């Protein structure tokens, strides 16, 4: 199979998926990371800077030397305790890292996809208020207001709640972008599979690395044996092993979406294909997000 390119493969469910992919026959795995990656070929990637993101895409093309990309897995992300952080380009950090840098990678690397390739953007069920995740649900997917939250007149004034909104909105953007990607003529002509994957709530990953120490500690503890009762009670809670396996199965084509489906959710350790939120099914919102994101990263729409 052609090469697999991945972000977020250094820890958590991404590392589980990367290990599985690296051990698969005839798979070449390229992993974007700030430092070393435990599996695959590590290439430097800093998602807080668009120039570094472009450099990573260029390095991927150079490293592959004409070999097409069989799977593009955009999995990295995080959540913060406020919206005060800014990327090197001045964007709100959660939106910039979780979504905008990955949008740029998508635009840069889609032309390199093989026929029958797979694209997976990791999202979250928190984009849908009906999931009942307990986080502030997204009010919109307006790229410019998310990139510059100080320009949003309706921004949540409580820092932690504003941070939750930044996270859930970035995940809504991922679902909408996959929807828009799947409709592109060049994607349809090459039979590319595009999926937004919700891994469920997976404790013990690097998602919480920017949260205060007590929250990081609780997140880590719940990822181990202590968290088993929690996982048993909720269909949306999964282990890193189950979530990583779901990502690897999509990448390798072991799991294929039903016709017309672009949203997958891991529930009780298995991939399901529910409807995404009502906002995530808005084609006009998907088109506007694609266009505005292109402007923010300096691309033609």
Count of separate DSSP helical elements: 10
CATH third-level topology? Rossmann fold
- Shape designation: globular
Number of domains: 1
Instruction: Indicate the percent of residues in helices.
Output: 25-40%
Task: Write down how many β-strands occur, each being a DSSP E stretch of 2 or more residues.
Answer: 8
What is the averaged pLDDT score?
91
Q: Uncertain spans, ≥5 residues at pLDDT below 50?
A: none
**CATH H level: which superfamily?**
NAD(P)-binding Rossmann-like Domain
Main β sheet profile? 8 strands, mixed
Radius of gyration: 18 Å
Helix and strand element order: EHEEHEHEHHHEHHHEEH
Q: Identify the CATH class.
A: Alpha Beta
Q: Termini, distance in Å?
A: 31 Å
| Binned strand content | 5-15%
Short description:
With 301 residues, this protein is of the alpha/beta class.
